[in-house]
Predict the 3D structure of the following.
Amino acid sequence: MDGEYDAIVLGTGLKECIISGILSVDGKKVLHMDRNDYYGGESASINLNQLFQRFGAQPNPALGNSRDFNIDLAPKFIMANGKLVKMLIMTNVNRYLEFKQVDGSYVLKDGKINKVPATGTEAASTPLVGFFEKNRLRKFLVFVQDFDRNEPKTHQGHNLQRMTSQELFSKFGLEKGTVDFIGHALALYDNDGYLTRPAEEMVERCKLYGESLARYGKSPYLYPLYGLGELPQAFARLAAVYGGTYMLHKPIERIVYNSAGEACGVVSMNEEGKPAFAKCKFIVADPTYFPDQCRVTEKVVRCIAILSHPITPGSEPSAQIILPQNQIGRTHDVYVFCVSASHMVAAEGKYIAFVSTITNVASEELKDGLKILGKVDSFFFDVYDIKVPNKLGHEDKCYISKSYDASSHFEHTSDDVMDIYERIYGKPLDLSKTMVNLNPDE
């Protein structure tokens, strides 16, 4: 590992692998290291035996072949028209992956699980809103669909940068239950804090949901075959094509700083057990490599469960169910995911379900989501801190990512990638461009 590099990236989580791939394509010499012996870090997908080992339990052969399982540690779905898809396209990394649509999207209202409407016919018959409310909802959704922040005529006289979301909902005469549905099942907020903020972000998030849904129909979500662990590996492959060097199972002894207090390299042990030094201009890392430079904001509490049955009323093999905070008397929404053999992540006839939320105490925060699962073959509970960096990294040249949250999709993850990019380059990442010379050897 001795040598000089433009960047050293620590941790092979999805965020770090995306940045590594972009840096490599941009001509930077990158050394990418991870203390683990597998790709993905906290966003990895692991097999059944690894799952039992992680939680200190004895494997259960009755569940099926361990290698048939790819279980996500940070489960999320991909918005079909979201930022992560644009990153995959701009880097051409989508050529390394296969995706399948998620079969259904559901939301809890008044104690019942209802399908989030995916067509005009479903919208007209959905029990989520009453007969007269359907027309008001339709008018709001048409407004969202037509809205363009750069075209004032589409604003219908509303200044969404000043008007709050609550004020906009009131203008359309929407009832509280409808507001719950829009804010949590379409805009995908996990609490009601957005209601007092400017409405433009909420409208843009609803618009993203609608555009993602329009691409494929049944739901706005995609999921990679063989699990989310395929994503960091695909970006790692991109970096390797452009000269990036990867080292797994490589613990870091220490970070080296120069007289100005800037990170200038790392020390690790080589194959002979002697210290080796790799020099760099800056470091990108996940929070686990810089615990003293991060603070804890919240906690994620999650249940990982293996079932022998689907969990939705429609018995779809893959789905998301959102339990809005107001419907279950919580501060944050609870998210329930389900994937199966149809996405090549479980043995035939088995389903993997996740129940996740943000919490400050890991007591009974998941109980409403756990009720949905029914009979469980095996289950595990995990609690971890959400850590965010204390500094931007300009002074010490250490650009640290945030921990993965409990949200149902990758938009927040993508925002963090874009933030890291801007901190490094001093300009936003342009998702509309296509990176060139992606196949230098062809």
About this structure: The chain has a mean pLDDT of 92. The chain has three domains: 3-43+230-294+387-425, 49-102+296-386, 117-216. The radius of gyration is 23 Å. The first strand starts at residue 3 and ends at 4.
